[in-house]
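Running log. JK asked me to keep both predictions on one page so they can be read side by side. First protein, sequence followed by its tokens:
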Amino acid sequence: MNFSWRVIDVPKWLSVACWLLLSPKNVFMAGLRSQILCRILVTVDKKSFQIPVKGIFLRPNSRYLKIQTTMRLSLCSVLLLTAAVFLSSCGGSRPSPITPGPNKPGNTTKPNTPTTPPVKPGDKPTGNNNGTGGTNPANPGTNAPNNKQTTYKLALLLPFSTNQYTDGSATLPDKNTIALQYYAGMQLGFAAVSQMPNYPNFVVDVVDSQVSDAEFQQVLNTNARLKQAQVILGPLRNSHVGLMANQAKISRQIVVSPESPTSELTEQNPYFLQTNPPLRAHCARIVQYLRSEKKRPADQIVLVCKEKEADRLPYFREANLKYGTTVLKEVIVPDASVNFDKIDFKKFIKPGQTTAFVMPSWAGSDWVLAFLSRLKQQKGNNTVEVYGMPQWADYEHLEPDLLTGLNVHISSAKYIDRTSTEVQEFEQLFYEKFGTLPDDDAYAGYDVVKFTAALLQKYGLNFPEKVSESGSFFPALTGGYYMRRVPVSNPSAPMDAAKPVLYDYLENIYVHILKFEQFKYQPVEP
């Protein structure tokens, strides 16, 4: 492997702490100039190494550096193989990109495209490709092929919580695992796009979003490289997403939010993309599946929820309007109830017909178990179906026989087919590099990088506008992205008359329907 390095102005003995990712043979590390991030200590003396991948510069921000090694180190009978040290200063020129090694993840295959098309308002938001960080409303670009940039500045906002570490830290708290898995997946995502022909260069800064809102606001106010980024991937915490959306709305930076499923989180912000489908997308997908694909009439669909969950029902009602005027049936249970003993489900069940019960609740496994047990008791020999939320997949107390007998389905933003060649190749590459298997967060990090890179390659910085117009489906290891415009929620809010924005932001509406069969949840047959 080739290295490009330069001397930078750092303290003579710069202590960098690293994190060991559960492996006897490989090490994946991330660290700070002055704060402990993990167990293994590496000392750098005025020299730092920067490893550019083809078309990509993985450059940490002023507080971060990333480390990999190609050395052997014996420590408590643990072999640490593979190392390299990344560090760059705030100034100075970047080295030219070089060709990476032969390993690369496989390409993904395209799953079935959802049948519901995205909303396509006629008017378009403004944007540009001036390359100054953010988008300049005074200089909208045409995004013609010769107007695309060859290099884009990206920032990754992940909650490493590095300010909580001291020299005495010995372990990494579990709450930081999500950031490290996302980061590892993102690394492989950038490595994959670096080998794709005709892709632009990406200068990537990694920024610690910290934990509290006050700390994150301080990051937004003071981090120079975050302000210079044209596209921001993150943050992951729900409370941080709103703060980032407000800041980016002012600076006109593009934000790709990979995790928060919250609805109505920003207004008149056409540069904001939410890739994790919100609750309304799950509700709409369930209705679409039942009414359009299963051909269930409205009077055979029953919504069940607690009083405090009733604010979720309008999502179902709205989605059902396109199929006629017949309303869905509803059962609203008092919040004080601990079971369903007083609820009569028999009146909804008709012999010879299949009744679908939809329960948009994640109040816990005991509550769901009480509902399923009561329904099993009352259905007799009749056929019923149950539709629940993604959280049900984690409820271990639900017996397989109960789930199978009631034909239980759930909606899910992600489905990873472990038998597919593309997933197996990704898992193998991840294990070879980091010495452990990826979790769902690593897949999400990988997918969002490839998604963002593909949009920049195809549309440039106008991609928020273009992707919602095109109605294109972007496949991913976890499923895919099908972006639609969220209509303006507050038409009376102040708006620039010269450049009106007729939608609030973009959201992904691609949702899987999974059925419990053969002891696991798997996609329904089309």
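And the second, directly underneath as requested:
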Amino acid sequence: MEEIIIDIGSGNIKAYSINTVKEIKNIYLKNIMFKKNFSKEIGIAEEDKKELINAIKEIKNRNIGIPIHAYATSVFRMLSKEKLEELQIEIIQATEIKINVISQQEEEKYMSRAVGNICEIDEPYLVCCVGGSSTEMIVMQNGKIIEQLTEEFATGDMLKKFPQIAEDKPNINIEDMYKYIKENFKKLPKTKCRYAIFTGFHLMYNTVAENKMNKNTFFERKDIPYYLTVEQFNKNNEEAINKRSLNSLKEKYPENPSFMNGTRGANTIVGYILEKVGAEIYFPTNLNMINGIVEQLQEEELIKKLWDYMKSNQKIEKSDCIIGLGCEDLNIAKIAVDLYFKEYGDKIIFSGGLGKVTRNIWNEPEANKFAEYAIENGVPKEKIYIENKSTNTGDNFRFTKELIKQERLNVKTCIVVCKPYVEKRVEATLKKIIPECKGIVTSQNIEFEQYCNQYENEIGNRNEVIEDLVGSVERMKVFAERGWQIQMDIPNTVWQAYEDLVKMGYDKYYTKKT
């Protein structure tokens, strides 16, 4: 189903159509410098508010019957709660569309997602957006954010200080502009970056201005087709300020000629940032927050394919014992205890030492931790057996098999409790190492997003869940090839989703790295 997303920044309004295959097309652009007339007492100026409402109406009238979502950033975050509610109500009454204000953290997350992991660059690179009221700077490496800053200084500030830059041919000294930026632009990344990717409408501007751009030979991305050296960029900016007619650019961009008013100020800030981070290569793009939102939707679809595949969905039956596989997720112990009291098994084996995650958060083995919980919640101590040396799934079952033999336990059937997204790998490992035991694999009945929220509240970052899920899918193939578990079919769509997520940077547990 097609959707329309409206992106309201501090200097413009953009609208995009998103089709069923998540392709993005810019369908509207209007320049309104909200920050220029903004004040904390009044909020968004009345004239700007009218222009905003009219713009939303125009977008709506052009796209009748298509769902529309509106997001605001930057200066809109500076509104008081009362002023924001007043604005939202007024816009809803006029357009029937609610504006959702995106937090700074969310905007930075979407911006980094828009660019994503550029595998060909194995050193830090800068992702930057010079907006109307603020400048976002993110330093990335191998798909991970290593620095992120926001400077409350941007295009609107330059237009306020130097209104003549919006004239056709201004009489202004570029050194004065640099001096003003240096006095007010205080936050800069500590990491030096040879490569700098600028989001927004940089590619559009350079195309309209007919600036010579070089074909991108550093990496292959359809949405980042060109680059300029910093020397080329600086020369172009000096010509734009001292020689080039702004009116001629406006004529070449009839869709929204006033957008060009802020380009001289924005590009001078860009030049300052490029110098300070030690950049040599400047990549102009039209990428923005919306690309990041769509990228997240695509990522969620890929993750769901892996999540659903890794679930075994087996029916629980009464068994000789319950085996709880140790990890950082205490819910496994809770489920094992619940199954015990529901008489699905008359004894519990907890298996696990200190693994890749728990060795950093606990001082005692996973099995001991789980056993303590079980005893505290009423399971008799003599009904609990502990194996606390294993550090991986294979050893969980090898050492559990030894324990069963040593304790002379009669175990021909078992229920194995594990994390939701490793069910299939646990099943394949159990059948390889203890084939004589009929096993049923189960876990917490929960969807991916809920599990991530729970994990963040109780344990750590949701990215750890995604990393572990991706690594588990790879091990389904690699470990079967090594003879450590039985072979199980992996559909092509699942393997493609796995490969796409690795390209996105989820390769922490990628076996080829270890």
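Observation for JK regarding the second prediction: The chain is about 40% helix and 15% strand.
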